[in-house]
Write a structure and sequence with these properties.
Blueprint lengths: L1 E3 L2 H13 L4 E6 L5 H13 L2 E6 L19 H11 L3 E3 L3 H4 L12 H4 L2 H5 L3 H16 L3 E5 L3 H13 L5 E5 L19 H22 L5 H9 L6 E9 L15 E8 L2 E8 L6
Parallel strand pairs: 1-4, 2-3, 2-5, 3-4, 5-6
Antiparallel strand pairs: 7-8, 8-9
Helix pairs in contact: 7-8, 9-10
Bound molecules: adenosine monophosphate (AMP).
Adenosine monophosphate binds next to helix 2 and strand 5.
């Protein structure tokens, strides 16, 4: 496995792969790798002979009040995990390398999709995400890119951007990886104290309950919203609980197979998100 820090080195590597007829798979991350990330690498490997994993904590997607400075960074450990997962190239650029002109031109998210869920509570966040993903597509020229359903709205918006801007990249979704007790893996979980971690389980527990409701025949979205709203309290402060269509991200009144229940909350000072597409079971 090779580690590079510049766009020029990635471009050269990509040219080599293309020349040798090896399809390229991209897995964008912010590092502090866990099994959720390495599951994306495994999925990329299925169709791509050459896998590039990017590690970049993107300042453009953090508001000034958010945790950009304290976001966990551990390149040494990440390199070991990436190598074990079968990554061929790690691209770990500096902020200057990615944004040499300071404030860059950006990808603006159309209104529909930007004003719900995390788009409503984190203004500007998805502009930062889509801008960096668009740059990563241009730099790495992948055939496919893998994104986790853990960040379901992000995946939906990336799909739309890729189609609208004609990026020749196949977007591959990856299922949410959870701990045995249900907690969705996240780099931010390492901020949690033991007590906070227990409180954090309320998010996945509410989603499990949503699945049970669906399986028992409930279809009123308000009932699912109410179930997720119960996450609040006991050290957990609810940010949103929404029930939306998986592609349009519009709120629904009646749920169906595939409707997404999404929840965001602060546990202590840590912001966590989780979601579940109804009808796929919950483990
Ligand atoms: P991040 O490093 O948090 O920006 O995440 C990088 C990629 O890993 C994104 O596509 C995430 O959706 C995905 N990811 C993060 N956590 C998980 C998880 N628990 N299960 C599946 N994918 C995940």
């Amino acid at each position: 496995m090779r580690l590079v820090h510049t766009r020029a080195e990635v471009r050269e590597w990509s040219r080599e792969q293309r020349g040798a007829g090896r399809p390229i798979g991209l897995v964008p991350t912010m590092g502090s790798l866990h099994v959720g990330h390495t599951s994306l690498v495994e999925i990329a490997r299925r169709s791509a002979e050459a896998v590039v994993l990017s590690i970049f904590v993107n300042p453009l997607q953090f508001a000034p009040t958010e945790d950009f400075d304290r976001y966990p960074r551990d390149l040494e450990a990440d390199l070991e995990k990436a190598a074990a997962a079968g990554v061929d190239l790690v691209f770990a650029p500096s902020v200057d390398e990615m944004y040499p002109q300071g404030r860059p031109w950006v990808v603006i998210v159309p209104e529909q999709g930007a004003d719900v869920l995390c788009g409503r509570t984190r203004p500007g966040h998805f502009t930062g995400v889509l801008t960096v993903v668009s740059k990563l597509f241009s730099i790495t020229t992948p055939d496919l890119a893998v994104f986790g359903l853990k960040d379901f709205q992000q995946l939906t918006l990336i799909r739309r951007m890729t189609s609208d801007l004609d990026h020749p990249v196949e977007i591959v979704p990856a299922p949410i990886v959870r701990e045995a007790d249900g907690l969705a893996l996240s780099s931010r979980n390492r901020y949690l104290s033991q007590t906070e971690r227990e409180s954090a389980l309320r998010l996945s527990a509410s989603l499990r309950k949503c699945e049970e409701l669906f399986e028992s025949g409930e279809r009123r979205a308000a009932v699912f919203r109410e179930t997720m709203t119960e996450v609040g309290g006991g050290g957990v402060s609810l940010e949103y609980a929404e029930v939306v269509h998986p592609e349009t991200l519009e709120h629904v009144d009646v749920v169906d197979h595939g409707t997404v229940c999404a929840v965001a909350a602060r546990v202590g000072s840590t912001r966590l998100i989780d979601n579940h597409a109804l009808g796929i079971g919950f483990n």
